[in-house]
From TrEMBL, chain A:
ABC transmembrane type-1 domain ranges (all copies): 71-262
Entry protein name: ABC-type glycerol-3-phosphate transport system permease component
The UniProt record lists the keyword Transmembrane helix: yes
Species of origin: Phyllobacterium trifolii
One of the Pfam families matching this protein, by short name: BPD_transp_1
Membrane protein topology class: Multi-pass membrane protein
Highest rank taxon of the organism: Bacteria
GO biological process annotation, one example: transmembrane transport
Automatic annotation (TrEMBL), chain B:
Transmembrane residue ranges: 49-73, 112-133, 145-165, 192-218, 239-262, 299-321
Chief location: membrane
InterPro entries found in the cross-reference section: MetI-like (IPR000515), MetI-like_sf (IPR035906)
Protein name stated in the entry: Multiple sugar transport system permease protein
GO biological process: transmembrane transport
GO cellular component: plasma membrane
Cell compartments where the protein resides: Cell membrane
Length: 276, 330
């Protein structure tokens, strides 16, 4: 066999494929960051590696637009959605796995089915209803609307995590005199933490990135969240690409940070049914 | 989902094993007294306790998911010309009106073609990337992480990055084209180019999901199968088509199903790329439903479109699952 001759060629092919892959995935992201820190005079330059930097685009978007307000709104809505999703989905999934509740599988299936509902089939009636009761255009309704897709995902993911859990440990704790709550707190919670973190990451990701629901449910400028806010900056201010890329970079930062530090939970969550 | 089914039956077996341990009498004992005794009775299963845990989540999901969907279906039988109008019952009129509009079918087929094209490309590109990332090379773990980046970005960001790269006057891609002597191309200007751009950006944005799922599945293919195939003289391509893909068929079927559902429902990417233009060329059903409801304030029409779109999707899922049953696979 000509294995020795074959190997260098093979690794050369793989190296160039990997290089191509990295450029394909990362160059657009790199271009976003580079464009955001280019000097205004050189915005349309095609230099791949600029030699001078300027934060003027950042100054523009942070001082001349409502971007900081959108940022605060996004932080508020995303954290509230994440906490609500964990708070509701974890006990629900625990009860679905552990309790002999009649129709438990039906609930699980309904949740999976609900996750496939088109956004329009949810956002339109929610908005019509909110206008009718006079509670439209508010961040609280946005948070509840977000739970229409984070909750099914959260229940489904937690359920997948929990059903692999050996509950004999919990029963052993009961035998040792633990109360039900104490056993959940001492035994179940620590073991399910990876699941909880995955659900948190995905709720965060979905709420932070959502465009459709805020487009439909929010109309006051001071209540917009980042994705919708940035897109309305684009239309309202005639912003140049440097400013838009500065905004895009700032929207992406928390997600990239989250991914860098908690990437393994992200992958675990993906395989446990995060699918959007 | 095949994995799910498997796990479900495992969970069921697990549960029944536990209930086998439990004395039948415990079920009948009053739960309150047991709770008061501070967990004195071991292995209790308190129905009320579990219902208490379930209730808040069930209430919120009924309120934010199931009631809105029922409300939407209800609204589709009424005519209302504004959000504060009192709706008038019109029976199936909205459906007749909406479905007899050629624009509806134009949007329907647009959406169908978009979903099929993006899913096929995501699966092919995703598998190709997964196969590259499955090879041993230095820095593999890091590259695997990096390859996920487009999926992490919010859709708005992915769209703006590419709109900037594709900008007809100043974008890098046209600059590169100019360098090779090509004239400026308006990437979102003609129907065909607009669709190609939307599809390309969608594939760039969402392929990492396929890559990661497929990569995880690749680790489960038994090495012996490849050994056996090699002994039979199979080359790399034959190994892919006769070993890898058949073994991973269940995973692929689930990926294709899920991706199709989500691509069929996607609204934001098309809205942000073209808003349905040029001249409705890239309008699909979610966009049509949005425009009917929020631009024309035709709430009955908009909800009828959303409802029919969901009915088509459910029917499609049903046919798919009949053709490729996930249940009886490993």
């Amino acid at each position: 066999m000509s294995l020795r001759k074959f190997l260098p060629v093979r690794s050369g092919v793989i190296a160039s494929l990997v290089a191509g892959l990295v450029i394909y995935t990362l160059f657009p992201v790199y271009w976003m960051v580079v464009s955001s820190v280019r000097e205004k005079a050189k915005l349309f330059s095609t230099e791949i590696f600029p030699d001078a930097f300027s934060f003027e685009s950042y100054r523009t978007i942070l001082t001349l637009t409502d971007f900081p307000t959108y940022y605060l709104n996004s932080i508020l809505v995303t954290i509230a959605t994440t906490l609500m999703t964990i708070g509701l989905a974890t006990p629900m999934a625990y009860a679905l796995v552990r309790g002999k509740v009649p129709g438990a599988m039906l609930v699980v299936r309904a949740m999976l089915f609900a996750y496939m509902f088109p956004a329009m089939l949810l956002a339109i009636p929610i908005q019509v209803f909110l206008v009718h009761v006079g509670f439209d255009d508010s961040l609280i309704s946005l948070i509840f609307a977000y739970s229409s897709f984070t909750l099914p995902l959260g229940v489904w993911m937690m359920w997948s995590f929990l059903k692999r859990f050996p509950f004999e440990i919990e029963e052993a704790a009961w035998i040792d005199g633990c109360s039900r709550w104490k056993a959940i707190y001492l035994i179940i919670l620590p073991v399910t933490m990876p699941g909880v973190i995955s659900v948190a990451i995905f709720s965060f990701l979905l709420a932070w990135s959502d465009f459709v629901f805020s487009l439909i449910l929010i109309s006051r400028d001071e209540l917009k969240t980042l994705p919708y806010g940035l897109s309305s900056i684009v239309t309202a201010y005639d912003a140049d690409w440097g400013v838009i890329m500065a905004g895009s970079t700032m929207i992406s930062l928390p997600l990239l940070a989250l991914f860098i530090f908690l990437g393994r939970y992200f992958v675990a969550g993906l395989s446990a049914g995060a699918v959007k | 989902m095949s994995e799910t089914v498997q796990q479900t039956s495992a969970a069921r077996a697990h549960n029944s094993r536990i209930s086998g341990l439990e004395p039948a009498a415990a079920e009948a004992a009053p739960p309150a007294s047991r709770r008061a005794s501070g967990g004195g009775s071991v292995l209790h299963r308190d129905r009320r306790f579990f219902i208490l845990l379930l209730l808040p989540g069930v209430v919120v999901s009924v309120a934010t998911i199931f009631l809105p969907v029922l409300y939407a279906i209800g609204l589709s039988f009424y005519q209302a010309n504004s959000f504060i109008d009192t709706p008038v019952f019109v029976g199936l009129d909205n459906y007749v009106r909406v479905l007899s509009d050629p624009g509806y079918w134009h949007a329907f087929f647009n959406g169908l073609i978009y979903a099929v094209a993006t899913v096929v490309l995501q699966v092919v590109v995703g598998i190709a990337i997964a196969l590259i990332l499955h090879q041993p090379f230095r820095g593999r773990t890091i590259v695997r992480g990096l390859a996920l980046t487009p999926y992490i970005l919010p859709t708005v960001v992915a769209v703006f990055i590419w709109k900037w790269l594709l900008d007809p006057n100043y974008g890098l891609i046209n600059a590169a084209a100019a360098f090779f002597g090509y004239p400026n191309i308006d990437w979102l200007g003609s129907p065909l180019l607009a669709w190609s751009s939307i599809i390309f950006v969608s594939v760039w944005h969402w392929t990492p999901f396929v890559t990661i799922t497929f990569l995880a599945a690749l680790q489960t293919v038994p090495e012996e199968l490849y050994e056996a195939a090699k002994l039979d003289g199979a080359g790399p391509l034959q190994q892919l088509f006769f070993v890898t893909l058949p073994v991973l068929r269940p995973v692929l079927l689930v990926i294709i199903l899920l991706r199709t559902i989500f691509m069929f429902n996607k609204f934001d990417i098309i809205w942000l790329m073209t808003s349905g233009g040029p001249l409705n060329a890239t309008e699909h059903l979610p966009l049509l439903a949005y425009n009917k409801t929020f631009m024309e304030f035709d709430i009955g029409g908009g909800t009828a479109i959303a409802t029919t779109s969901f009915i088509f999707l459910t029917a499609g899922m049903y046919v798919y699952l009949k053709l490729f049953p996930l249940e009886d696979r490993e």
